[in-house]
Amino acid sequence: MNFRTVKRFALIASIGFVTVAVVAAALDEHSVLVAGEAPATSQAESRPGSGTEFSPFVDRNGNISLPRNYRREWAHLGSWAVATKPGEAVHELHDVYTQLETVASFNESGEFPDGAVLVKEVRATQANRLTTGHAAWSTEMKVWFVMVKDREGRFEDNPHWGDGWGWALFEAKDPTKNVSVGYDTSCLSCHAPAEASDWVYTYAYPDLKQPAK
Ligand code: HEC
Q1: In which residue ranges of the chain is pLDDT below 70?
Q2: Is 180 in the pocket of ligand 1 (CB under 6 A)?
Q3: Cα of 145 from ligand 1 centre, angstroms
Q4: N or C: which end of the chain has fewer CB within 10 A?
Q5: Does the predicted TM-score (pTM) go above 0.85?
Q6: What is the pLDDT of residue 14?
Q7: Three-state DSSP class for 164?
Q8: Probe ligand 1: pick from 120, 181, 183, max atoms within 8 Å of CB?
Q9: Coil, strand, or helix at residue 36?
Q10: Atom 32 in ligand 1: which residue has the minimum CA distance?
């Protein structure tokens, strides 16, 4: 392979947003194949310009965005199986995720650290009699509820922030848009039963150290 071909490979690789290191490797004739096969890693969470030093999911005006890689990269805190009435079928499964650092920090201090993010994924369900019993499993995505811990009261004038958290709601049809009206109208009253544990239903998350009784 001549130098010109190698250069073309390098160009293609850089157009594909493959990392600089891979482009450099492509200049080594023997690594070209490897470079061609390297998957372009998706780093949506650390895309420059989308966040701030405080949080990659919060811009300078306090607009919250939905984290995308939580299922692969974060800790699964717990699940809620929800039926409209006792005895009725489970019609939603709620799965809650947080960053790995948040679990470690919470278990050391008993508090959610600044920048902690909680994502509650709400999915529809399907159910059937399986060999395990009558089982329900999650199917299509409905909505995501997101909370971002703010220990400094950064966004006092923003209706989505207050009581130590940023609060947001995203729908499957447009995950880029926070459709919550404001946390006091859309969220707070329902979280009042959990006020003593910083508005979070921590008792359902076994990996978070529970307060001594
Ligand atoms: C109808 C009542 C209700 C409303 C409205 C509501 N929540 Fe919740 N939320 C709950 C309950 C109850 C749980 C835990 C049980 C469950 O999911 O079924 C929960 C759990 C969560 C969780 C998982 C962490 C935790 O607290 O355990 C997040 C994140 C969350 N809610 C965010 C929000 C945000 C943000 C809003 C407003 C946009 C909101 N919620 C509105 C009742 C509500």
Answers
A1: 1-50
A2: yes
A3: 7
A4: C
A5: no
A6: 46
A7: coil
A8: 120
A9: helix
A10: 145
